[in-house]
Amino acid sequence: METVVDASTSEEANGSAVEKKPTVVFVLGGPGSGKGTQCAYIVEHFGFSHFSAGDLLRAEMNSGSENGLMIRSMINEGKIVPSQVTVNLLQQAMEESGNDKFLIDGFPRNEENRAAFEADTGIEPAFVLFFDCPKEEMERRILNRNQGREDDNIETARKRFKVFLESSLPVVEYYESIGKLQKIDAARAIEEVFESVKTVFASINEKED
Ligand SMILES: Nc1ncnc2c1ncn2[C@@H]1O[C@H](COP(=O)(O)OP(=O)(O)O)[C@@H](O)[C@H]1O
Ligand SMILES: Nc1ccn([C@@H]2O[C@H](COP(=O)(O)OP(=O)(O)O)[C@@H](O)[C@H]2O)c(=O)n1
Ligand SMILES: [Mg+2]
């Protein structure tokens, strides 16, 4: 007869080899508030991997995947793509990165996004950055962005602002209510905004080099 399970295997199974959960910071703010811009600086200074939910969805849309057409029509209407699609893309990107510190930008954009991520990954954010910016300034930035995005036109931008107010702000308020929100005045020059961002991250862990 085969030997029974040995001691080392059962030790792993009962938790001695449990992995540490990754650190996740969600980066929220209205369309054009400067999330992507600030994330690039955070990556340089603090060693996080940055994933923009919008960028991952655009890549998926252009990859010829079966969800491509659905994603394009949602994005062009400023609507939020079903959470399962976005959470799967984020999970895959995190797994492939090999890192354990993630900035997730433009997510969660509604309560369904928030709940799906938590249910599927078991991860809660360490904290949530919120870039607070007046609508007029966000509108100016979007219309000057020049990245060739189909949704950066005035008509879609207005739909995105409406979705932000109705669906995304309640998530921001939720994180505020549990004491996890770090609100930053984003209506200043890029360098000034980053000074405030640095203060928040410096208290966590400075990149060692
Ligand atoms: N503090 C700022 N002041 C002026 N323009 C900014 C600032 N931050 C970002 N921008 C510009 O505004 C546009 C939107 O910024 P982006 O980082 O793409 O925002 P988001 O990811 O929140 O939509 C970009 O063209 C960017 O260069
Ligand atoms: N969590 C998310 C993030 C983006 N999106 C879609 O992608 C679009 C662009 O998101 P984005 O984060 O790149 O846009 P910005 O806030 O950077 O301007 C959104 O308007 C949504 O249509 C989504 O459906 N779900
Ligand atoms: Mg962005």
UniProtKB/TrEMBL annotation:
Q: What does its UniProt record remark on the domains?
A: Consists of three domains, a large central CORE domain and two small peripheral domains, NMPbind and LID, which undergo movements during catalysis. The LID domain closes over the site of phosphoryl transfer upon ATP binding. Assembling and dissambling the active center during each catalytic cycle provides an effective means to prevent ATP hydrolysis.
Give the note describing cofactor binding and stoichiometry.
Binds 1 Mg(2+) ion per monomer.
Q: Which superkingdom is the protein from? A: Eukaryota
A single MF term (Gene Ontology): ATP binding
Record field: catalytic activity: dCMP + ATP = dCDP + ADP; UMP + ATP = UDP + ADP; CMP + ATP = CDP + ADP
Main localization is cytoplasm
Which BP terms in the Gene Ontology apply to this protein? 'de novo' pyrimidine nucleobase biosynthetic process; nucleoside monophosphate metabolic process; pyrimidine nucleotide biosynthetic process
Entry keyword set? ATP-binding, Cytoplasm, Kinase, Nucleotide-binding, Nucleus, Pyrimidine biosynthesis, Transferase
Give the CDD domains listed for this entry.
ADK
Q: Where does CMP bind?
A: N113
Q: Which InterPro entries match?
A: Adenylat/UMP-CMP_kin (IPR000850), Adenylat_kinase_CS (IPR033690), P-loop_NTPase (IPR027417), UMP_CMP_kinase (IPR006266)
What is this protein for, i.e. what is its function? Catalyzes the phosphorylation of pyrimidine nucleoside monophosphates at the expense of ATP. Plays an important role in de novo pyrimidine nucleotide biosynthesis. Has preference for UMP and CMP as phosphate acceptors.
Q: Quaternary structure per UniProt?
A: Monomer.
Question: Which species is listed as the source?
Answer: Cucurbita moschata
User: Does the keyword field hold Flavoprotein?
Assistant: no
Q: Where does a ribonucleoside 5'-phosphate bind?
A: R58, K79, I80, V81, G106, F107, P108, R109, R149, R160
Question: Which sites bind ATP?
Answer: G32, S33, G34, K35, G36, T37, R145, R188
Instruction: Supply the EC number(s).
Output: 2.7.4.14
Q: Kindly list the GO CC terms recorded for this protein.
A: cytoplasm; nucleus
Where, if anywhere, are coiled coils annotated? none
Q: What protein name applies here? A: UMP-CMP kinase
Q: Which cofactor does it need?
A: Mg(2+)
Which EC class is this protein assigned?
transferase
Q: Where does this polypeptide localize?
A: Cytoplasm; Nucleus
- Give the family from UniProt: Belongs to the adenylate kinase family. UMP-CMP kinase subfamily.
